Amino acid sequence: MPPRKRATGQAELPGISSTKEIQDILWKAADKLRGSMDAAQYKEFVLGLVFLKYVSDAFAERRAELAADPELAEIPAHRREDFLEERDEYAEKNVFWVPPTARWDYIAENAGSAAEGVGKLIDDAMNQVMKANKALTGVLPKIFNRDNVDQKRLKELVDLISDARFTGHGDRPAQDVLGEVYEYFLERFARAEGKRAGEFYTPASVVRLIVEVLEPYKGRVYDPCCGSGGMFVQAEKFVLQRQGRDHIHDLAIYGQESNERTWRLAKMNLAIHGLDPKGIGDHWAFTNVDDKHPDLRADFVMANPPFNDNNWNPSPSDLKWRFGVPPKSSDNYAWLQHIVSKLGDRGSAGVVLSNGSMTSKLSGEGEIRAAMVDADLVACMVALPGNLFRTTTIPACLWFMAKDKSPQGAKALQDRRNEVLFIDARAVGTMLDRTERVFTDADLEKISDVYHAWRGTRSAKEKHLSYEDVPGFCSTASLEEIAKNDYVLTPGTYVGTVKVEEDPDAEPVEKRLARLTDELSGLFDESSRLDALVREQLARINV
Length: 543
Description:
Layout: H1 19-34, H2 39-67, H3 77-84, H4 87-91, H5 104-110, H6 118-132, H7 151-162, H8 174-193, H9 204-214, E1 219-223, H10 230-243, E2 251-255, H11 260-272, E3 298-303, H12 332-342, E4 343-354, H13 365-374, E5 378-383, E6 396-402, E7 419-424, E8 430-431, E9 437-438, H14 441-455, H15 458-462, E10 474-478, H16 479-484, H17 492-495, H18 509-542
Helix pairs in contact: 1-2, 1-7, 1-8, 2-8, 2-11, 9-10, 9-14
């Protein structure tokens, strides 16, 4: 793509070009504000500025393309500027329209001289961008001119962000570069906020695993508690990697988020990645109170609901409780039944829940689980290792559900009706440090390949995969066997333990035990002798 052109009069800066450099410089920018506002506010503050810089860079990139078009020479000179400002030329490339006084070059040039301060300049720019782009209405933060904002630090922050280039990265559009930066920031903020980050961030390893198992090539994707939109973004990445950029619009996203600030982050995240922000509604809302998609039947549902929360307050008359009214004390089975109610005839779902959801019998949860198993909705259960989630110490698992486990005609899948796959992945993953574990690409492939081989998917056939039980890791169980285990769904109940083959040259167990007993006896005798010597020496000293 043509390099970004600078506005007349702007000083030439060396700039920061690599994605890693952009990430580093913007994290320094966040640190500049850390002391003057709470974590949630500075997250919105910095990401809002990054987003404004992105839309400006993307706009400038498109403007440079238009200016370099040979057909521009055929337009009369007095009309060329009007052509470069024609909104339709930007809309057709999914580029947000940025009014002249909202463009970053204008902000950077006037940040030090604005009579009312740089904060007012930025608030006005945010307002102009929202007015010019319906999809961003009510999304961008207007918090830069508040009393608790240090305007000097804000000016320094603007200078830092001015050095970050989201364009000019070879064949990579600004959208991809900023998308990576935005995700990096969400992860860093999640680490900084600890447990509170659970409302907006699901670890990338977990999201990728859900997507790799479900393989959402095309169709309607739904997340009833979408946080900052990570499930949608990863689904888009999956399509990009497997199908190419021309197929991005094969996915239609639907979701909602109950927290206002998180909803705003999600809207910006989707817009940055070229996904339609309208898919998560025009307002934040809790799914139980205000279902934004009451008639939706999705092809894929991906969700990480709050663990063991109690926000649903279920009404016994609600038709979605076809397997039983969930208790008020825990939302696990409210979420599961809501998700099932949203699945299309051949829809499938991946849901993160606490381990307790696999065994609980409190307040009727055991009966609901049994009814869902008997309805043949559970396709696969995955036990996750510890330390994947920085936001909670509660052990977690994945529920994969499917409305249709038949061969599905031309798809020629394996017939898995009345069967459930169990995967014990507690020993999988790599520790980044003492507190955080991640799944590597090989780990993700290991787990997802097992599911695809079991189901006989297209990807499994392309890899020539065939399924077989692996003791200690994966096993298929019939619904009858699950019923005999009182509908407990913990993978460890079914996969067994790893079979360890004895070395034929190894010392026999009985002889080994006898030898160890003799050695321990000798150590005990030696200890007793030394104790007697010490007592004797102490007695002499006392005399």
